[in-house]
């Protein structure tokens, strides 16, 4: 029998949101009933400035919070950075690592992403490690090779299957309204599961939640989330509004 992990729907607010935006998360909290909570884990990753207030406001709603990045060190002279322990102290339970915007705009290599993910584990946070190919890599037929290489390079050593989440996010699908075909998503997710099996053993690999991210919206969430080895979604733009985010959660549950 195959083990299917409980799905996770995670919202990545990126550099969006001020205190007034907590109205949206209040509405999400009210809209998530007990039956949905049983079926789906829900997470919002706001900017660091909102993390403490949002975490406090969401207590009792079943919605967890997370950071969008962390430094690999616990503390020190790193102006502008935030450590995993600080995120945990502000109420976070997860942190996104290696988002393509960090890899591209901040030059983060897989080695950096691995160190950050290990730091997250050290602070008892669950890292959501993002991997995904660019359009040029896709056109060149390199998708599976690129994704596997990023996975091997970014996964902390000795991590257990339920301590980590992987998000497959094709770079060309992020914020563009474009998504891969369901067959392509299924192929990549199956390849990620197989590679995880090689890295951590089959039993642990079966426990890892592999999210799809990139232009997930209410109208495509049902189809994407129904695919084998797709254990939830990492949602950018459509996670900012309660109505859309709740519709995606319903499509998954
Ligand atoms: P999107 O972003 O849903 O707006 O495409 C996804 C992400 O970058 O995590």
Structure description:
The protein is an alpha/beta fold. It has a domain at 86-253: Alpha-Beta Barrel (TIM Barrel), CATH 3.20.20.70. Helices cover 43% and strands 15% of the residues. An eight-stranded parallel β-barrel has the order 1-2-3-4-5-6-7-8, surrounded by seven helices. The longest helix has 19 residues, at 182-200. The protein is globular. The structure holds 2-phosphoglycolic acid. Residues 12, 169, 174-175, 213-216, 234-238 line the site of 2-phosphoglycolic acid.
Major pleated sheet: 8 strands, parallel, barrel
Compute the gyration radius: what is it? 17 Å
Under CATH, the topology of the domain at 86-253 can be stated as TIM Barrel
Average residue pLDDT: 97
Distance between the termini: 21 Å
Principal-axis shape: globular
Q: Name the beta content range.
A: 15-25%
**Broad structural category:** alpha/beta
CATH class of the domain at 86-253: Alpha Beta
